[in-house]
Amino acid sequence: MVQQQQQHRIYILQFRKGEPEQEVACKVSQPKGAGRRVMYYYQDYGSGGGKSGKQVQPRALGLRRFLAMLLLSFLCVGTLFVAPVSFLSFVHSDEGGAAAGAGTGAVATAAAARGAVSGPCSSVGNDSFCCDRTSERADICFAKGDLRMHSASASFQLVSAGNSTAAAEEEEERIRPYTRKWEANVMATIDEVRLRRVVPGDAARCDVRHDVPAVLFSTGGYTGNVYHEFNDGILPLFVTAHHLRRRVVLVILEYHDWWMTKYGDVVSQLSAFPPIDFTADRRVHCFPEVIAGLRIHGELSVDPARTPEGKSIGDFRRLLDDAYRGRIEFLERLERRTARKRLRLHRHRRGAVVPRAPPGPSHADDDRRPRPRLVIVSRTGSRVIENEADLAALAADVGFDVRVIRPDRTTELCKIYRELNASDAMIGVHGAAMTHFLFMRPGKVFIQVVPLGTDWAAGAYYGEPAARMGLRYVGYKISPEESSLSREYPTGDPVLTDPAGVAQRGWDVTKKVYLDRQNVRLDLARFREELVGAHRYLMAGGDGGGRRRPRAPE
């Protein structure tokens, strides 16, 4: 059975023939009567096209098929004698890795990329499963053999080669495939899935057979917060599945249509096949191998020493480039077409060719190079820059081409990526939106405004990962006078002078005081020094990345 790969791009809807291109938003169909909503996909199929698995259909065993199967059996036996080491293993530990490759009708494979592989599940033989629970962040299980997804019992069944009922009843593992193992409250919201051995007589009958592995993970928990969507989901998925070279089916717990709409382009770079909604899809999907859970390396990080083939955060950036290239080119075509229409309309109204505007004045020092582009990521609600307009004017005066973006949950991720990928510098106040530094190119500048009481989180969650990615990171720690809390609390109050001490009262106090009730009014004279330093660095062609020591308030 030959399984065809398919290229699929999500959230671009189909147009009728002859209909002009236009920008559209992805939609889901409204349910007709009972049932769940169904998302529409626009798919470009590769050679021949195909689905992720083929429906099982009873077929008579003819003489030709029997002879072909007999010949294939002899070939397989010969291969095992020549290469006795299992070529179907995809299991790897944090200490080593694997390189994926697949032949016609074969399971996607992975070979060790860095010397010997070690760990509790370093080798999983056929007809077995193993769970690695040594990480503080996440459990991960590996299974190999005749595996059948049975969502009705929230399990994957490993059909035993033997007939020992006692052995089957004793062998079972349970996992909640989410990467915040240490947070009991959130893990309690994640569905539990069982890996259990069953005898052939008790096994569910296959409805769809796949010849590639499955990776099971959850999009529950903190999904809805862009930081957690990348840190707990997308990056661990990259670490776990990228080496399989898209020859993998993604099985998703707590499936959300909007999540696939938002991250469909990225997901399609990791899997060539449509994802499976574990809960809603009641068909029995059968796989030769299953990875349940994801590996996570740290905050917004990919550690090359712990990934198959030594992949790094730079490889993840290249995956984002590939994921959004087609959509960005589409948007650019629309913009050029719109600009031409506006120009023709303007000329028609004026009745003459519109003269070109004279060139504007040159930048200070007669430097004719383009002005570095600076993007201010604006917030609403809390941690707002109250003098944001003045900040934008100051940055323009220093020599930046300033853009202000205000992303929200409805903003197409590709548009944020496009803006930041083309930028030279980004400014924003500490918060989940700072995750978008991942969209910047190495060597550019990331200035994070650090409000009172957020020093540790700002550095650990965004500053340090940004520096590891190769950005020039600047942490601008505000003074008490730059915080709106100075208007709420008297001078000398511990909230202003001892945020670390206040934080010891617990997370709820920190969140209520420093995250939910604090805005920022920048000291523009002081902040100007950071802008001037960033501008000089960029104009000098700085691309060394790294981290600057955060500037403390004076």
From TrEMBL:
The GO terms describing molecular function are:
glycosyltransferase activity; pentosyltransferase activity
Q: Where in the cell is it found?
A: Golgi apparatus membrane
Tell me where in this chain the Glycosyltransferase 61 catalytic domain is found: 358-446
For this protein, the record's InterPro entries field holds: Glyco_transf_61_cat, Glycosyltransferase_61
Region (Disordered) location? 350-371
Which keywords describe this protein according to UniProt? Glycoprotein, Glycosyltransferase, Membrane, Transferase, Transmembrane, Transmembrane helix
For membrane topology, the record states:
Single-pass type II membrane protein
**Which GO cellular component does the record give, naming just one?**
Golgi membrane
Q: In which pathway does it act?
A: Glycan metabolism
Membrane-crossing residues? 66-87
The protein's name is Glycosyltransferase 61 catalytic domain-containing protein
